[in-house]
UniProtKB/TrEMBL annotation:
May have a photoreceptor function. Transmembrane segments: none annotated. InterPro entries: Cry_DASH, Crypto/Photolyase_FAD-like_sf, Crypto/Photolyase_N_sf, Cryptochr/Photolyase_FAD-bd, Cryptochrome/DNA_photolyase_1, DNA_photolyase_N, Rossmann-like_a/b/a_fold. SUPFAM superfamilies: Cryptochrome/photolyase FAD-binding domain, Cryptochrome/photolyase, N-terminal domain. FAD binds at Y232, S245, T246, K247, F248, S249, D383, Y384, D385. Pfam families: DNA_photolyase (PF00875), FAD_binding_7 (PF03441). Binds 1 FAD per subunit. Binds 1 5,10-methenyltetrahydrofolate (MTHF) per subunit. Its cofactor is FAD; (6R)-5,10-methylene-5,6,7,8-tetrahydrofolate. This is Cryptochrome DASH.
């Protein structure tokens, strides 16, 4: 009997540094790469927003297409499924007599529920599920503390990790993959995902395209062609252009590139050129990303409650739908907030500085339930990452990982510092 396995790709859409893929190849006579467009990812949430909007969906389609192309170059392919993973994967298990499914380990509640459903269905088919942590810089089991004892203040986490932890080696991309003959499958389009088509706004700071190939090209360009990494700390709060920040976040969110790959390339760059506060700051930001994932493991669903992890119960008030819509449409009357919200609505992207300001305005000036803001970001953002998005919103709302109870931004002062000539505001408030 041929020992065949499925590699279930999720938010690890790459061949390099993919532990799940490498382990599957090593333990199998042949593998069947699979990606499933999960119906639940394209439904409307309890907050009234799509879980996945058109911008991210388009980016996902491009990333899956690129993964399929790259697998075909290694004499394999990608089966593209559409439906509920527990149902669709079971069909492939039965068709190809699969005994093991390899996949990325999930850490957040909804994703874990799906993983558990799949594992239950596989058990009924005498098939096992093996999962691996693949989307962080550090392995959580190598940290100097268990997740439940992890510090709730980032600085304490950072100091402990920098002192006691090392980043593990990357997993090399396979040179060839042995797969059985796979049936032809076609990617759905946005219409099949019940979404409208999207057009790139000419004012976009950076028109993203999904896929591992694009991610590695951006890494090379940012480090070597422009050497923008050398000024990252000074420019990262910029708002106009394509090089003020790395723009790695969208590819990281889908696993088109791994955090370990970025750091490995960063070390090569530092040896060849220069190490400075900006090159360190990129590591610092990736550490924040790991931290929010670890906090999600520690606190679980509390991050999705109105009082977050703080335990400070905030009285629920009726939702001001009028104020919410004004914020979404960029019609609050505050030009700095409105320009940022229009950019998000038209492109699926917003700068880090913009995100902090619009979230502060939402929570403090409009006094709205922060979860609605987080849910709207979930729909709109190309680079949506469940841990970073909800962790950051809770942080700004004063109910997350922040020793300060009220993180308020003076919007006018922020605008004068980060958009002193109103270049950004003129760009997005001018009718197109």
């Amino acid at each position: 009997m041929v020992k065949r396995s499925i590699v279930w790709f999720k938010t690890d859409l790459r061949l390099h540094d993919n532990k799940t893929l490498v382990k599957a190849i090593a333990q199998s006579d042949g593998i069947i790469p699979v990606y499933c467009f999960d119906d639940t990812h394209y439904k409307t949430t309890n907050f009234g927003f799509k879980k996945t909007g058109c911008y991210r969906a388009q980016f996902i389609l491009e990333a899956v297409c690129n993964l399929k192309d790259n697998l075909q170059k290694l004499n394999s392919d990608l089966l593209v499924l559409h439906g509920n993973p527990e149902v669709e994967l079971s069909k492939i298990v039965k068709e190809f007599n699969v005994k093991t499914v390899f996949a990325q380990e999930e850490i957040t509640n909804e994703e874990k529920l799906t993983q558990n459903k799949v594992e239950k269905e596989l058990f009924n088919l005498d098939c096992s599920l093996q999962t691996y942590q693949t989307n962080t810089l550090y392995q959580f089991d190598n940290l100097p503390f268990n997740p439940e004892n992890a510090p709730d203040v980032f600085t304490n986490f950072r100091k402990a990790v920098e002192k006691d932890c090392i980043i593990g080696d990357m997993f090399e991309a396979p040179k060839q993959i042995k797969s059985p003959k796979l049936p032809l499958t076609i990617l759905p389009d946005l219409n099949a995902l019940q979404l409208e088509s999207t057009n790139t706004d000419v004012r976009s700071a950076f028109p993203f395209k999904g896929g591992e190939t694009e991610a590695l090209d951006r890494l090379s360009n940012y480090f070597y062609n422009t050497k923008s990494i050398l000024t990252y700390k000074e420019t990262r709060n910029g708002m106009v252009g394509d090089s003020y920040s790395t723009k790695f976040s969208a590819w990281l969110a889908l696993g088109c590139i791994s955090a370990k790959k970025i750091i490995a390339e960063l070390k090569v760059f530092e040896e060849k050129h220069e190490a400075n506060t900006s090159t360190y700051w990129l590591f610092f930001e990736l550490l924040w990303r790991d931290y929010f994932k670890l906090m999600m493991v520690k606190h679980g669903n509390r991050f999705f409650l109105r009082d977050g992890i703080s335990g400070l119960i905030k009285a629920a008030k009726p939702l001001n739908k009028f104020a919410l819509k004004k914020w979404i449409d960029g019609k609050t009357g505050n030009d700095f907030i409105d320009a940022n919200m229009i950019e998000l609505k038209k492109t699926g992207f917003m700068s880090n500085r913009g995100r902090q300001n619009v979230a502060s305005y939402f929570c403090n000036d409009l006094n709205l339930d922060w979860r609605y803001g987080a849910a709207y970001f979930e729909e709109q953002l190309i680079d949506y990452d469940v841990c970073s998005n909800w962790g950051n919103w809770a942080y700004l709302a004063g109910v997350g990982n922040d020793p300060r109870s009220n993180r308020y931004f003076n919007i006018e002062k922020q605008a004068s510092v980060y958009d002193p000539n109103a270049t950004f505001r003129k760009l997005w408030l001018t009718k197109k």
